[in-house]
Amino acid sequence: MDTFHLSNQYFKCHAVGFYHHVRSLLSQTLILPRASVFFYKQRDDGNEVTPDQRDGEDEVVSLTWVMETNGTRCGEQILNYGPAEKVLIGGALTLLTLSTICGNLLVVISVCFVKKLRQPSNYLIVSLAMADLSVALAVMPFVSITDLIGGQWIFGQFFCNVFIAMDVMCCTASIMTLCVISIDRYLGITKPLTYPVRQNGCCMAKMIVSVWLLAASITLPPLFGWAQNINDGSVCLISQDLGYTVYSTAVAFYIPMSVMLFMYYRIYRAAKLSAAKHTITGFPREGESGETASRRQRKNQSIFKREQKAAATLGIVVGAFTFCWLPFFLVSTARPFVCGVECSCVPLWLERTLLWLGYANCLINPFIYAFFNRDLRTTYSNLLRCRYRNINRKLSAVGMHEALKLVERPDNTSPLCGKK
């Protein structure tokens, strides 16, 4: 019997050491809620003591944890920034927010006030800019304030739900609009004879409304009883319900990302095939006049350049989108499965870093499209230099040759919407 008691005491001692070692390792990677752990101690007479009678000797952890979280279900996580760090981080977040506002405002102003850009083919770009602008105006400032005061939510439970709804709605609309733009560009490349330069405005409007309605289908469930958001005092967190998490991340990110990657692959493949065809057909055919061969070659070059430009544009858009949003959604998807449905065990600094990386995509979008669109570049330049009167005249002169081509084009159908 003495040998049994000695073995039992030896096991308990090493179990306690193993527990503290594991918890020390976890605390370095995950911020765990503070917990009071039930222990028991083996008396010399073989009886066990209650948790209140433990004296700290030969303690063994029980399987029952009682969470001490100051009245909340989630452990309190605080971002401890010094004065210099607050100034640096606050300046960076303010610069990011203001740059996002200015960049997307330039897009909206350019399309609305410049005649050449005021066409249905740019409606999707305006919708994307409005979604990104909404993120910068209605979401980023509150996240900035929350981060600078340590990560604690101070705006109340009601506004927590409003804030989460705005965040999810605008970010989802931005992502889905990027997806629709990729489809639109793909159809424009693969169906050049039927792709209109001026698309049906009614159809574009329907597509935009559909995007925002689909974004609303992710936003509204927590407001109407399914998957309640978490708002316990200083914590404001989107619902961690497993079913809602899978649904929202799939519809808001994984499906659009898959579609965008597929569209980019198809456009890249079309551009590659066009390059091979351009090389083969570059030589005059038998019995073909020099003028006919030259005209055919110019046509092939035009198609090839358009496909190459579309592939480059969409490649950068997809690359920037994936780089900015993929880490955040990977963590968001795994979080409820790892941490449970009532709180987050992911370090707050990591969550905030990945969130701001996603928000940075709202800043990148207008500059990507401006870089590859000569008309937008010209408009940006004139607006920033306050040359408002000459914008339409310059764009008309630059695009006169293209405009004449469009007038001669007999077909004016849209691959997405059909004939006008």
TrEMBL record:
One of its GO terms (molecular function) is G protein-coupled serotonin receptor activity. The chain crosses the membrane at residues 87-111, 123-143, 155-183, 204-224, 244-265, 310-334, 354-372. The keyword Membrane applies. It is a multi-pass membrane protein. The keyword Phosphoprotein does not apply. GO terms for biological process: chemical synaptic transmission; circadian rhythm; G protein-coupled receptor signaling pathway, coupled to cyclic nucleotide second messenger; smooth muscle contraction; vasoconstriction. Residues 103-369 form the G-protein coupled receptors family 1 profile domain. One of its GO terms (cellular component) is synapse. Its main location: membrane. It comes from the Eukaryota. G-protein coupled receptor for 5-hydroxytryptamine (serotonin), a biogenic hormone that functions as a neurotransmitter, a hormone and a mitogen. Ligand binding causes a conformation change that triggers signaling via guanine nucleotide-binding proteins (G proteins) and modulates the activity of downstream effectors. HTR7 is coupled to G(s) G alpha proteins and mediates activation of adenylate cyclase activity. Belongs to the G-protein coupled receptor 1 family. This is 5-hydroxytryptamine receptor 7. It comes from Cynoglossus semilaevis (Tongue sole).
